[in-house]
């Protein structure tokens, strides 16, 4: 007990050994998640390539549908599922197996309810887009893609919570391998459905749905076989699952808002680019740059999710000093990643656009803005990591407020002002993003480094994980969880 108290109130500077050990722990989780994110990115690129093979109309319609489904669907589901991070990570740290298990079930129930209004939006995509003045032919094609993507909503109600559930326990390598196996079959699926069977746009959408379904089946199989999954309280769903939805929503909704506010801002930039003097060139360049930022985002996104798990685990275990160490190490890594992004975007700015297009004007426009995008990552990496730390401490509402203020009260006015009022043009939009990321990073670093009382957060974690929304059962030996030990996963009693 004395050792625990000493660690609880410790504010000493960590030794180099402690820093290195924490870095090993963090990156042993983050590297598989980064690789998994890259595979998901590759899957999206394959879908776009097959749409492009069908023709320009199919590509435009598919692109419109992908943007619409990201805004109205996937961003919402990912955001809501991220609200599971503080509960699962802290419950795992405190060995509250019941709360960990039932929270997963509650989140699946929340997402199931969320996809009902989302599916109504997807079904009515054509009428919505026509009302907004979009081209009728492109909108009709987008509507077809969207309709055949509807089953993916149901798939994601399981996929997104499962990813958080496993990551909160440090289980990341199985996620990578399950994604790898599913993505391997993505190209053959597209070829069979699109080329052999001639299904066209519906075939591309169906291939994406089936790939996600494969991921879910593999993950469920892994958890069932190695984790002795217990679906408790399914008979008494009203009291067990539904009864605790409210407290979980208080974490899920702010998490969702924070993530959506950032995701949606990039779509706003695409719309704004359409009002510039050469809209076709500007929108095309915006598409390339957004794909570039998406690729760069794979690393900080993985780091964010893993530091959220690390911070939550240590706070749940009553070790605020180790939680603080995990946060500081992750922020240090985030700054290094940001500098790396600046270096490569400056060095390869004249060659990068050539990977996407042969148009010299488009390549020149991309090259002029790419260093700005790299500079944005110097703010984006710490900001994204900081949001993960805030989720790990069960404070997603703070991150949501910061994202709202930074992107919409700083970034948007700067982007509009520079691009249109001061006639800076296309670069002005991305200077707006730079200002938003700078404001975000400064605000989040201030909250994490100055305003966070780690001992107090540990006490809050104890209160959070003691919320017994189900009765604990006496025989803990029968409760299996996945834990990483010496490179293996095994059941922990």
Describe the protein's architecture and organization.
A two-stranded antiparallel sheet has the order 1-2. β1 and β2 form a beta hairpin. The chain has one domain. Helices cover 80% and strands 2% of the residues. The chain is globular, with a radius of gyration of 23 Å. With 493 residues, the chain is mainly α. The N terminus and C terminus are likely disordered. GO terms for molecular function: antiporter activity; xenobiotic transmembrane transporter activity.
Helix amount: over 70%
Q: What is the number of independent domains?
A: 1
Helical run tally: 20
Unreliable residue runs: 1-6, 228-239, 468-493
Helix and strand string, N-terminal first?
A: HHHHHHHHHHHHHHHHHHHHEE
Q: How are the strands ordered across the major sheet?
A: 1-2
Biggest sheet architecture: 2 strands, antiparallel
Overall geometry comes to globular
Distance between the termini: 22 Å
Mean pLDDT over the residues: 83
Please tally the β strands and state the result. Answer: 2
């Amino acid at each position: 007990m004395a050792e625990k108290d000493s660690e609880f109130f410790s504010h000493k500077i960590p030794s180099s050994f402690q820093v290195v050990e924490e870095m090993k722990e963090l990156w042993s989780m983050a590297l598989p998640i980064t690789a998994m994110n890259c595979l998901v990115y590759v899957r999206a690129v394959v879908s776009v390539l097959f749409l492009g093979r069908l023709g320009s109309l199919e590509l435009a319609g598919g692109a419109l549908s992908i943007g619409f489904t990201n805004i109205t669907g996937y961003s919402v589901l990912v955001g809501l599922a991220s609200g599971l991070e503080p509960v699962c990570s802290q419950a795992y740290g405190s060995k509250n197996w019941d709360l960990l298990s039932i929270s997963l079930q509650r989140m699946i129930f929340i997402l199931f309810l969320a996809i009902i209004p989302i599916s109504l939006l997807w079904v009515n995509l054509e009428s919505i887009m026509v009302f907004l003045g979009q081209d009728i032919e492109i909108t009709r094609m987008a509507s077809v893609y969207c309709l055949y993507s509807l089953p993916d909503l149901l798939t994601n109600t399981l996929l997104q919570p499962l990813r958080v559930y496993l990551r909160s326990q440090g289980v990341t390598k199985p996620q990578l391998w399950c994604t790898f196996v599913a993505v391997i079959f993505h190209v053959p699926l597209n070829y069979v459905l699109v080329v052999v069977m001639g299904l066209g746009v519906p075939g591309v959408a169906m291939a994406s749905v089936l790939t996600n379904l494969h991921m879910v089946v593999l993950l469920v199989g892994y958890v069932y076989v190695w984790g002795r999954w217990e679906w408790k309280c399914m008979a008494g769903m009203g009291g067990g699952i539904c009864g605790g939805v409210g407290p979980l929503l208080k974490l899920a909704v702010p998490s969702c808002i924070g993530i959506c506010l950032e995701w949606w801002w990039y779509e706003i930039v695409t719309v704004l680019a359409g009002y510039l003097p050469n809209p076709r060139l500007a929108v095309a360049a915006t598409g390339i740059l957004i794909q570039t930022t998406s690729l760069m985002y794979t690393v900080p996104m993985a780091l964010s999710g893993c530091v959220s798990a690390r911070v939550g685990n240590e706070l749940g275990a009553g070790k605020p000093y180790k939680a603080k160490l995990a946060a500081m190490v992750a922020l240090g890594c985030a700054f290094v990643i940001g500098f790396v992004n600046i270096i490569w975007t400056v060095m390869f700015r004249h060659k990068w656009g050539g990977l996407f297009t042969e148009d010299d004007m488009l390549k020149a426009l991309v090259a002029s803005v790419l260093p700005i995008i790299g500079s944005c990552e110097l703010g984006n990496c710490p900001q994204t990591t900081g949001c993960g730390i805030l989720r790990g401490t069960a404070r997603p509402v703070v991150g949501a407020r910061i994202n709202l203020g930074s992107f919409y009260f700083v970034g948007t006015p700067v982007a509009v002002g520079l691009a249109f009022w001061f006639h800076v043009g296309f670069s002005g939009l991305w200077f707006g993003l730079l200002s938003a990321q700078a404001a975000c990073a400064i605000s989040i670093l201030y909250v994490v480094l100055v305003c966070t009382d780690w001992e107090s957060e540990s006490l809050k974690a104890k209160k959070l994980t003691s919320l017994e929304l189900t009765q604990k059962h006496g025989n803990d030996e029968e409760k299996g969880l996945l834990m990483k030990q010496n490179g293996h996963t095994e059941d922990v009693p």
